Amino acid sequence: MDMNSCKESESDLAELTRSSEYWFDDGNIVLVAEGGVGFRVHRGVLAHHSAFFRDLFSIPQPSDDKDMMDGTPMVHVSDTPMDVAHLLRALYNGISLIRHAGERLPFPFVASLFELAHKYDIDALRADMLLRLRSCFCHKYSTFLAQTSFQLVTANDPEQLLRSDLLEIIPSRDAIRAVDLVRLVDERTMLPVALYLCTLLPGAKLVSGTTLENGRVAQLSPADLALCIDARTNLVMRRIRAFNTAPAGVCRQPTLCAAVLQQMARMTHYQQPSLPCHVLANVDQAPMTSPPGNFLCAQCSAPLVAVSAEFRRSAWAHLPADLGLEIPEWDAAAT
């Protein structure tokens, strides 16, 4: 990041916009974000929380009127105004309030704070945001079972969000940014769930990326895009094999049930084209419904819930491999 080499002309300075939320009369430093939005804040607050700013402020700076705004020194940062405002909100309103509130936070807010906490060496904030991220992007199946669930975004929206007590993720909005974030900080144990959520996206969005709330565009790298494309096929084939079962031994209509079971295996993929193959769906959301007009006998339908639960655990166990990853810490134990 280039902190001071980004010089502004006098005409540029005249166009700087003051933040309506963070412009303190007694502030002694102006953070200038992308687009020329200024935040007049306190050096002491930044230095207290951030090792980066503490080191920066310890270096004597040359006196230059061009790097002053209303008599206050300026520091140029390569962050969006929205992200800077999120960070200042955490620092001024209290990191401890966010840490102990226990409320579920949306992924964009958590991701923004985590990125800047990582960038500016704000250890306490980074640790708290990482805890929230790991509540969903976990590597232990027991944690995934105990802490997370998939729920419909709205009653009329087929997309499912992933939710824990600490974090809420909407894949169409957040999945690609999650992969970028995990790659940025090299948290490999979080990568399988992040990439898996990307495999649930429509193909066009997977390729073109997502426009974030801060105005930037998140896109998968060519390597990660290839992993997701290959994983779609792997996940579909895994589900078809799992549910391509034969009628029960005590089935009273084996010909009909065999046909229905085969059709259900195909439906597990094709009934929801916008969600290519949701192998980690909650067991009670698994596509176990018989095709219209065809019904399994009681002896054949009863075992399917158990099959679905075991398939979900097995899908978790094989998720890194299906995504082309090696994660030695990956844990598929249910307890």
Molecular shape: elongated
What is the first-to-last residue Cα distance? 44 Å
Number of spatially distinct domains: 3
Are there runs of 5+ residues with pLDDT below 50, and where? 1-12, 271-275
**Count of DSSP helices?**
16
- N to C succession of SSEs: HEEEHHEEHHEHHHEEEHHHEEHHHHH
Mean pLDDT: 83
- Would you tell me the structural class of the helices and strands? alpha/beta
Proportion in helices:
40-55%
Q: Which sequence of strands runs across the widest sheet? A: 1-3-2-5-4
> What fraction of residues sit in β-strands?
5-15%
- Please give the largest β-sheet: 5 strands, mixed
Radius of gyration: 25 Å
Number of strands: 11
Topology:
Elements: H1 10-14, E1 17-23, E2 29-33, E3 37-41, H2 43-49, H3 51-57, E4 68-69, E5 72-76, H4 81-93, H5 95-101, E6 105-106, H6 107-119, H7 123-136, H8 141-147, E7 149-152, E8 160-163, E9 167-169, H9 171-185, H10 191-199, H11 203-208, E10 210-211, E11 217-218, H12 222-243, H13 254-270, H14 298-301, H15 303-317, H16 319-322
Parallel strand pairs: 1-3, 2-5, 6-9
Antiparallel strand pairs: 2-3, 4-5, 7-8, 8-9, 10-11
